[in-house]
Design brief:
The protein has two domains: about 50 residues, LysM domain (Membrane-bound Lytic Murein Transglycosylase D, Chain A, Roll); about 90 residues, Membrane-bound Lytic Murein Transglycosylase D, Chain A (Roll), CATH 3.10.350. It is about 20% helix and about 10% strand. The strands form two sheets. The chain has a two-stranded antiparallel ribbon with strand order 1-2. A two-stranded antiparallel ribbon has the order 3-4. Helix 1 crosses helix 2 and helix 3 packs across helix 4. The longest helix is centred in the N-terminal third of the chain and has 9 residues. The protein is elongated, with a radius of gyration of 17 Å.
């Protein structure tokens, strides 16, 4: 039977991760397992029941090439698109725009992520704007978050 936890005053995801998973930096696993209950990793509704993932150590995150995602439905398989990979969104995406996703690593900042993807740390506001549903400001960035990285449009 899966473990659960009823949220009480003073609970934090990092505190619950330490208690149940052995490490505070695994709070993202609890957040991801409870996206149906939690609107943000920073706001825990009192009395809500959270599913607690297995304490087994997760496999290491492999950061590889970013894959474009969109909210457009995947067309049914046909001879013309038979070899096309079917993609599933990992984060929220503005309707009709292609984006990439990036899992925040320990020590990342929005400026560093912006530099990595755009070659310019000053473009971090574009990442912040694309992730307003989970990121209220740059200081709210936490390891394990999955960010939408908007595609840069040529000017």
């Amino acid at each position: 039977m899966p473990r659960t936890h009823r949220i009480v005053d003073g609970d934090t995801l990092s505190g619950l991760a330490t208690r149940y998973l052995g490490r505070a930096d695994r709070f993202g696993e609890i957040y991801e397992a409870n996206r149906d209950v939690l609107r943000s990793p920073d706001v825990l509704p009192l009395g809500a029941i959270l599913k607690i993932p297995s304490a087994e150590e997760p496999p290491p995150i492999q950061v590889g090439p970013m894959v474009p995602i969109s909210r457009e439905p995947t067309p049914p398989a046909s001879p013309s698109n038979e070899g096309t990979a079917k993609l599933s969104p990992l984060g929220s995406v503005t309707s009709g725009t292609a984006s990439r996703v990036y899992r925040v690593q320990d020590g990342d900042t929005l400026a560093a992520i912006s530099r990595k993807f755009f070659g310019d740390a000053q473009k971090h506001q574009e990442i912040l704007a694309a992730n307003r549903d989970q990121l209220t400001d740059a200081a709210a960035l936490r390891p394990g978050m999955v960010l939408v990285i908007p595609e840069r449009r040529p000017r």
